[in-house]
UniProtKB/TrEMBL annotation:
This is Methylthioribose-1-phosphate isomerase. Pfam families: IF-2B. One of its GO terms (molecular function) is isomerase activity. Substrate binds at residues 53-55, 90, 203, 254-255. Gene3D superfamilies: translation initiation factor eif-2b, domain 1, Translation initiation factor eif-2b, domain 2. The active site is at residue 244. Catalyzes the interconversion of methylthioribose-1-phosphate (MTR-1-P) into methylthioribulose-1-phosphate (MTRu-1-P). It comes from Rhodovibrio sodomensis. The record marks 164 as: Transition state stabilizer. The gene is mtnA. Its EC number is 5.3.1.23. Pathway: Amino-acid biosynthesis; L-methionine biosynthesis via salvage pathway; L-methionine from S-methyl-5-thio-alpha-D-ribose 1-phosphate: step 1/6.
Amino acid sequence: MQVDGVAYRTIWPARDGRAVEIIDQTRLPHSFETARLETVDDAAHAIRAMRVRGAPLIGATAAYGLWLALRADPSDAGLDAAAETLVATRPTAINLRWAVDAVVQDVRPRPRSERAEAAFAKAGAICDEDVAINRAIGDHGLHVFRRAYAAKTGDGPLNVLTHCNAGWLATVDWGTALAPIYMAHDAGIPVHVWVDETRPRNQGAALTSWELGRHGVPHKVVVDNTGGLLMQRGQVDLCITGTDRTTASGDVCNKIGTYLKALAARDNGVPFYVALPGPTIDWSLDDGGQIPIEQRDGREVTHLTGMTDRGRIETVRVTPPDSEAANYGFDVTPARLVTGLITERGVADASRDGLLGLYPDRARPAAE
């Protein structure tokens, strides 16, 4: 995507061949800065501190993290230690383990002298595949948006509500839930996006709004609890979110607050779509209740960081000093509340049969 006329991915190899560079998302929206990752510990910290975030992007970062690790220690012990370190950074998103496993399986059979180079190539392939997948998600989602706009009664734009950030900042490029929005906008469909702030880290207010503004997509930021009111008043034509892990039966784990939007959408007859790449499907799970839910530092709830009117970045406490906070990062939306899953292979019902219709290669072999 473009930032001030310059094409960027969210992660890329440094020109000197000794590191990878990222967009530091903790600095947005007030400052666009890049950072350099030179070691596996740098990569792990970037994931844990959410300098990079979004299921596809943390997977890509972990893949490059293994390359950085193998440059320093290409032994089996070094490979295993690096993989363990990276997988432990964020427990909910399945793409992280998927990417780590993909690199480990590729390099383990190789001589030590070839491992780092092979890991670098595999990480690059994972990034290129992610871009192609997200572009395809956008194409399939565009058909959904065309139908929704054609079915819309009355004047005005197609009003879309989204939650958290599932744009190009959450992937290597294009994004998942925002890819159809970009493509619809570019195709001339008038789109207006209601952007949930997404407390406590405010990925919607800080990142989604920044992305949409750079692309020229009309939008308004709303507090997280506004969605239900907007749906009651007929001001939302469809909802679309991303996901960090989707079960084989179609349950969707996404940023905390997604479940409440799905409930409001069902109560008001608003279609609720989820956009996801194939690697985000956890074929080993049928029940979303089995997905581990990340619990993060309570300080993310008790404190807010932003820019003052004088242009200074400051952090302030918004709760009493003696009040503790619970900070659950994700929730699970049952498949019954999901209208459709938009993938790189098409749009599926949120069910095992629906997903297997697009991914027949993942069908379990019949018992002999």
